[in-house]
Amino acid sequence: MTYEELLTQTALEDERIIVMTAENRALVRNMPKVLGSRFIDTGITEATMVGMAAGLALRGRIPIIHALAPFLTMRAYEFIRTDVGIAHLPVKLSGYIPGLLSDGNGPTHQSIEDVAIMRGIPGMEVYCPADEDDLVKSLPAIWASDAPAYVRVNHKKGIYTHRPFERGQAEIIAEGADVTILVYGFLFENALKAQQLLTQEGLSVGLINMRSLKPVDEAAIVRAAKRCRMLVTLEDHLKTGGLYSIVAEVLLQYGITVRTMPLAFEERWFKPGLLTEVLEVEGLTPEKIAAKIYSSSKLVYAE
Q1: What CA–CA distance (Å, rounded) separates 48 from 275?
Q2: pTM assigned to the model
Q3: Are 273 and 238 a contacting pair, CB within 8 Å?
Q4: 104, 52, 59: which is closest to 76 by C-alpha?
Q5: What does the DSSP 8-state code read for residue 216?
Q6: Which ranges in 109-229 belong to alpha helices (H)?
Q7: Between the N and C ends of the chain, which has fewer C-beta atoms within 10 Å?
Q8: Which domains does the chain have, with CATH numbers?
Q9: Closest C-alpha to 253, from 218, 220, 214
Q10: Cβ atoms 235, 185 nearer than 8 A
């Protein structure tokens, strides 16, 4: 099932759902003829769309709104914080082409700080599915919740069949004694392949899909930290405020010390290009991820 098929089915079953977009119809191009007046395109006006969504939510509707991730999270931030966050309204924000999925775009169109921005809003939930299968398994529970939520929409086909989704629960793919990779979103597949490469090198490698970043599965992080020698956080996001920060906060809260290696962007945006080129240049191919982890794991054993 695709994102649009799931949204169509859900909206037809629940008349409270209003589908909205700020002239970003890539995910919902067939919805107008299906929903009629329950489909609203506000044009390139992300803040206006969020304000309208808040008003509709106050009247018992469930708005599911769509825009390019950088413009949804930054251009409309004040409206999300004030109209949706403070009022704690069930507006569901779908961010399109987040992170490295905006491969050909420069810094103005890259969304690699969206997790930090959205998780800073009290009551806002943040989800980052690994692929289309993970996305469609996650959304029913997210849409059914009374909480506002930001979803990094990743509709790319994957190679892994995911387990059923629960809000606040990580998906444990494998447990390891040497290294555990914590990852979310588009880079999950590369992490899975890197884990397989490292296993072939004789390392015991765990892998956790952190599909729910807020609420986050603290128990899964703590268990991995106590079980292995090194944690690796892998994300197409700035190091500040993303998964690395989340893991650091959890470890500090529970008084746990473990070597943690972040693979993320530090104080810079990525150079645009074809997605394969960006992954190669940024060292985020499975082979380069595995090589970085293998090298660092040897340092841990040498200490």
Answers
A1: 32
A2: 0.95
A3: no
A4: 52
A5: B
A6: 114-119, 132-144, 188-200, 218-227
A7: C
A8: 3-152 (3.40.50.970), 171-302 (3.40.50.920)
A9: 218
A10: yes
